[in-house]
Amino acid sequence: MGITVKDMLQLPSFRGAKVLTGNNNLHRTISSLSVLEVSNADYSSRIVHSIQEEWYAEEIVISSFYSIKDSVEKQCETIEYLHELGEVGLILYYVGIIIPEVADEVLQLAESKNFIIICMPENDFSLRYNEVIYEVMEAIVLNNQTINDNFVNEALEKVSLLPEHSRSVEITLKILSDRLKANVILTNTQLDIVNQVMWPRNSSLNVGYIIETYAPYLMNMTKGQAEPVSNCYVEYKSIHQKNGEALHLFLIKENSKLPAKTIDKISEVVQVAINLWGDKHNEVSEYALVKAIINDESEKMRRLAHFLHIDVSSIQMMWLVYIHDLSQEKQIREELEEHLFKYYKTAVIQTIDHCIIALMGNCSYKYNEYEIAAEYIDTTISAPLISEIVYAPRMRNTQDVRRMYRLVNSVGRKVHLMYEHRKLYTAAEMRSMKQAIELSEQGEEILEEWMSVIDPILGDPESIKTLITFLLDAKGNFDNCGKMLFVHKNTVKYRIRKISELIGYDVTVNSESYDVYIACMIYRLTHS
Question: What is the pTM of this model?
Answer without folding.
Answer: 0.64
